[in-house]
UniProtKB/TrEMBL annotation:
Enzyme superclass (EC): lyase
GO biological-process terms attached to the record: fructose 1,6-bisphosphate metabolic process; glycolytic process
Subcellular localization, as worded in the UniProt entry: Plastid, Chloroplast
Name the UniProt record assigns to this protein: Fructose-bisphosphate aldolase
Highest taxon, organism lineage: Eukaryota
Lineage: Eukaryota, Viridiplantae, Streptophyta, Embryophyta, Tracheophyta
Family annotation (InterPro entries): Aldolase_I_AS, Aldolase_TIM, FBA_I
GO terms, molecular function: fructose-bisphosphate aldolase activity
């Protein structure tokens, strides 16, 4: 464990640590004499270190990204209701089977985040979904957080629960075939964000990441900066830099192996209600600025969330971020930005399955090309250009 001297020394090097995040000034009395400074040696993540690094590199492979289908049963019900289907296990299974059995999906998708129900489910023919994924060389993943709840003492903000029992659950998920995990917490710019909320988000992510690695799961670290608000892109950049500074501080404090994690950040964009919309070139510029300032090159992959952008917007922005070399694999971990057209094509009808799977491949290939910096929006449908932002979105 890091000594108190080391903690104080690290805190003096950042203006965004813990409760001092908003009011610490330069020249603070936290500085220590050189003779009192100690060097912290980061330990390996137990016996799984080599496997974690290999898994992370497999997911962060050229031209591929993550298909996120980890919606809770309640959120899955909202998706199904949009096409007139009841929220039953059979309907959820049918939709997830459509997605995961798409021929050729592994050409563009390297990992898929599943909800717990899906991880333990099989196809209607009795084949485990994890085996369906493995056959396509897609790594199975699992959502492990237990959702957002109000954070007492904050500015109407949230914190993510789920650390209780996480070690034992992670061990079971690994046994079932999962090899990476996802934990999503959020930061709201209109709510401040408060120092308390940012510290809670960063600490929770760090504890989850350490527990995941200790049980053989590559943790996806996801503090989502919500799109809600009318703030300019410069404000988003400021908050994102502060949040990621705090996150990496606590990841290091918890001895997380950076080579065995993946990040799932929001793109740096203006607030959804801002009067001026940013171009893909501007979003790429601000997002890469944030990453270069805050993310160590040891991290294998940056797998962006789409956060309510349209399918085309999310792909265009990713394409622009891959117009020059990056120290990390810059790719995607999309849910709605891969599924929206698919769901509307399917409509719950067996005769539409083939067409829906073709729609999924179109979107997956588009994002694969974007990851390689070779995407063109020419020929995209009007449906793919429709925004999907929902104010106060939860899932």
């Amino acid at each position: 464990m890091a000594s108190s001297s080391l903690v104080k020394l690290n805190a003096s090097s950042s203006s965004w640590i813990g409760q001092q995040s908003f009011n610490q000034r330069s020249g603070s009395s936290c500085r220590l004499p050189v003779s009192n400074r100690r060097v912290s040696v980061i330990r390996a993540a137990g016996s799984y270190t080599d496997e974690l690094i290999k898994t992370a590199k497999t997911i962060a492979s050229p031209g591929r990204g993550i298909l996120a289908i980890d919606e809770s049963n309640a959120t899955a019900g909202k998706r199904l209701a949009s096409i007139g289907l009841d929220n039953t296990e059979a309907n959820r299974q049918a939709y997830r089977q459509l997605l995961l059995t798409t021929p050729g999906l592994g050409d563009y998708i390297s990992g898929s985040i599943l909800f717990e129900e899906t991880l333990f489910q099989s196809t209607t023919d009795g084949k485990k979904f994890v085996d369906v994924l493995r056959d396509q060389k897609i790594v199975p993943g699992i959502k492990v957080d237990k959702g957002l709840v109000p954070l007492p003492g904050s500015n109407n903000e949230s914190w993510c629960q789920g650390l209780d029992g996480l070690a034992s659950r992670s061990a079971e998920y690994y046994k079932q075939g999962a090899r990476f995990a996802k934990w999503r917490t959020v930061v709201s710019i209109p709510c401040g964000p408060s120092a308390l909320a940012v510290k809670e988000a960063a600490w929770g992510l760090a504890r989850y990441a350490a527990i995941s690695q200790d049980n053989g799961l590559v943790p996806i670290v996801e503090p989502e900066i919500l799109l809600d608000g009318d703030h300019p892109i410069e404000r988003t950049l400021e908050v994102a830099e502060r949040v990621w500074a705090e996150v990496f501080y606590y990841l290091a404090e918890n001895n997380v192996v950076f080579e065995g994690i993946l990040l799932k950040p929001s793109m740096v964009t203006p607030g959804a209600e801002h009067k001026e919309k940013a171009t893909p070139e501007t979003i790429a510029k601000y997002t890469l600025t944030m990453l270069r300032r805050r993310v160590p090159p040891a991290v294998p992959g940056i797998m962006f969330l789409s956060g309510g952008q349209s399918e085309v917007e999310a792909t265009l922005n990713l394409h622009e971020m891959n117009q020059s070399p990056n120290p990390w694999h810059v790719s995607f971990s999309y849910a709605r930005a891969l599924q929206n057209t698919v769901l509307k094509t399917w409509q719950g009808r067996p005769e539409n399955v083939d067409a829906a799977q073709r729609a999924l491949l179109i979107r997956a290939k588009a994002n694969s090309l974007a990851q390689l910096g070779k995407y063109s929006a020419e020929g995209e449908s009007e449906e793919a250009k429709k925004g999907m932002f929902v104010k106060g979105y939860t899932y």
